[in-house]
Amino acid sequence: MSVLDHKIPPPIIGLSCAALAWAVSWLTPRFDFDWPLQAAAAGVLALLGAGLDLWALFAFRSARTTVNPLAPGRSSAVVLAGPYRFSRNPMYLGMALLLLAWCVFLGNPLTAVSVVLFCAYITRFQILPEERALLAKFGAPYASYLSEVRRWI
After folding, report:
1. How far apart are CA 69 and CA 48, in angstroms?
2. DSSP single-letter state for residue 124
3. What is the pLDDT of residues 105-147, one digit of tens each?
4. 146/111 Cα distance (integer angstroms)
5. Would the pTM count as exceeding 0.90?
6. Distance of CA 102 to the CA centre of its chain
7. Longest dimension (CA), the chain
8. Which helix (DSSP H) or strand (DSSP E) does residue 131 occupy?
């Protein structure tokens, strides 16, 4: 267990990575590029990310379990419906898509480092500790879910 496990809310991590992407873009303007469908691509990615987040939130609400990522031990059910059929972490995937949308909008390929950092941080300090807590709480059914559904996509 690390001192950072479940300490910083994932949206704060996402916003921090978005700020990092903006800073990278601002500090490296020579790498900026524009392409005809850039805004449209960013919009589509943002809609996909937000839609996935809302779908996952609805699945949690339907299962009447906590959506608090800082307290996975308070979960009352393993959610297997909706987007949880193809990703164990659709809310984080949705956040990553929103961050990718921001990077596409900024038009600087160096900003992609923020998406990589987001995924790495969330995996290490949020997802892995969540998986340990849920495995301890739900046992074999959750272990089966872990073996059947991918962590991200």
Report:
1. 21
2. I
3. 999 999 999 999 999 999 999 999 999 999 999 999 999 999 9
4. 31
5. yes
6. 14
7. 53
8. helix 128-138
